[in-house]
Amino acid sequence: MLMPSLYRTAGVLLLVGTLACPTREDAARRVARQAALAAARECADAAASETCSETICRDQCSPYADSPQIAELCRDQCLGRGTCNSDRDCAGGLVCLMIAPRLRRCVMLVDGAF
Q1: Digit-coded pLDDT (tens) for 87-106
Q2: Residues 17-64: tens digit of each pLDDT
Q3: Contact 80, 59 (CB under 8 A)
Q4: How many angstroms separate the first and last alpha carbons of the chain?
């Protein structure tokens, strides 16, 4: 009788441990948000703000260069493109639109359609 309870307890602990452990993708998203804020501050007055932002985002996301997908995710989110959590993560007139149950992407809305 003790075994099912032991397995259940072990399963719950494993699940909680997995949910609490941030992934490399989570870390890249956090770096992208911080880099986007830094780019907004430093490139606000720059004549070529897109180039300025790209340089900052590329530099800040460089720790993820060994994984092309994670590096691209970091750069895209830093530049306000790609996946998003809210409209604040998007730039250049893009809005955050849910395209799948757990996936949102920055898109340009034209006359209420995308």
Answers
A1: 887 877 788 888 888 788 88
A2: 555 577 898 899 889 889 988 888 888 776 667 788 899 999 999 999
A3: no
A4: 57
Higher pLDDT, 65 or 49: 65
Tokens 């985002």 sit on residue: 57
For residue 4, what pLDDT band results from cuts at 50, 70 and 90? low
Domain extents in the chain: 21-79, 81-114
Contact (CB, 8 A) for 9 and 16: no
- Mapped onto helix, strand or coil, the DSSP state of residue 12 is helix
- Checking DSSP bridges between strand 103-107 and strand 95-100, what pairing results, if any? antiparallel
Nearest Cα residue to 64 out of 26, 34, 103: 26
- Residue whose token pair is 């995308």: 114
Tokens 């830093």 correspond to 78
Between CA 69 and CA 102, with CA 38 as vertex, the angle to 5 degrees is 40
Relative orientation angle of helices 24-42 and 68-78, to the nearest 10 degrees: 30
